[in-house]
Amino acid sequence: MPFRPAFHQPNFLKIGEILKAPDGDTFVVVGKLGAGACAQVFEAKNEKRNGEDAGMVAMKIGKIEREDYARIKREIEILEIVKNVPNTIMLKKIFSYKCNDVDFQILVLETMGDSLKDLIKDKTVCTPNAIRVGMILLDVFQHFQKLGVVYKDLHAGNVLFSKDLRTMKLIDFGLSEKSPRNSATDDKAYKYIYDPTMITFLMVNMKTNYKNAKQPRCSISYYVNGLKDVRENLLEAGMLFLKSFIDELLDQIKGHLSYPKLKLALATGLPTYSEDDGFIVSSTIPPSLV
């Protein structure tokens, strides 16, 4: 049977459907949040075995017999590896579920608010908060490198915020992979530079009306040319604050990856930036939406 992505298939779950985990927890499906190539994501109300209301959760569900089930298993493995990394989505529970003779694997995840993609649909992000997002992601990717994980899927739809916009988390580790950390012993260790490089293209999403700058996972030369293209248009795009960051990326892209240098280069784009600033620096209108 030809492969059909999960987003082209009928809903795996029905609204109101009740799922019971082996530990006695129940989950009542309240809506669909989205779908990808190998899984669909639903929002559900979680009730503990003792009847306690455990709030809302997100459930990522994929068919076990599908040829890409290995990708779901890899995502579970990666989520376990990065579970203590700040600003990454938390995996709460894993269980299997059978419906209409189809076996599903379910990942129960914490639920968040809007994605960055939703927030910037018809808006741009102010420079202080754009840098704030970049700094948080650099911290996350630095942790990932120490753990031997390459994320590989940074785009605005995979960056979620809490409802008050004070907390940001990275989601969807379906394309992530474990990778060697020593370029001297493995010629593919250079892939770690892809994650911080993607921050540049995410900045284009946040600061301009171009909302679909999702760079394909190609060769080093493709990334170099993409960075140079962005750099040439910084003045016109009102993004001169990124010049030092892009220059540093271009220096590092074929050599040693240094997150401290990348953070310094990004911070120099805004002399008034402080790591102690809250994401929301106004009690009224969130500056990220101004």
Q: How much strand content do the residues show?
A: 15-25%
CATH architecture of the largest domain: Orthogonal Bundle
Q: What name does the CATH topology of the largest domain carry?
A: Transferase(Phosphotransferase), domain 1
- Based on secondary structure, the structural category is alpha+beta
Low-confidence runs: 280-290
SSE string, helix = H, strand = E?
A: EEEEHEEHHEEEEHHHHH
Question: Which homologous superfamily in CATH is the superfamily of the largest domain?
Answer: Transferase(Phosphotransferase) domain 1
- N-to-C span: 49 Å
Radius of gyration, Cα only, in angstroms?
20 Å
CATH class of the largest domain: Mainly Alpha
In which range does the helix fraction lie? 25-40%
Query: How many domain modules?
Result: 2
Shape: elongated
Strand order of the largest sheet: 1-2-3-4-6-5
**Number of DSSP strand runs:** 10
Mean pLDDT: 85
Question: Brief overview, please?
Answer:
The protein has helices spanning 69-81, 116-119, 127-147, 194-207, 220-232, 234-237, 243-252, 259-267, and strands at 18-20, 26-35, 40-47, 53-63, 91-99, 102-110, 149-150, 159-161, 168-170, 177-178.
Chain-wise SSE layout:
Blueprint: E1 18-20, E2 26-35, E3 40-47, E4 53-63, H1 69-81, E5 91-99, E6 102-110, H2 116-119, H3 127-147, E7 149-150, E8 159-161, E9 168-170, E10 177-178, H4 194-207, H5 220-232, H6 234-237, H7 243-252, H8 259-267
Antiparallel strand pairs: 1-2, 2-3, 3-4, 4-6, 5-6, 7-10, 8-9
Helix pairs in contact: 3-4, 3-8, 5-7, 7-8
GO molecular function, one term: ATP binding
GO cellular component, one term: cytoplasm
Protein name: Protein kinase domain-containing protein
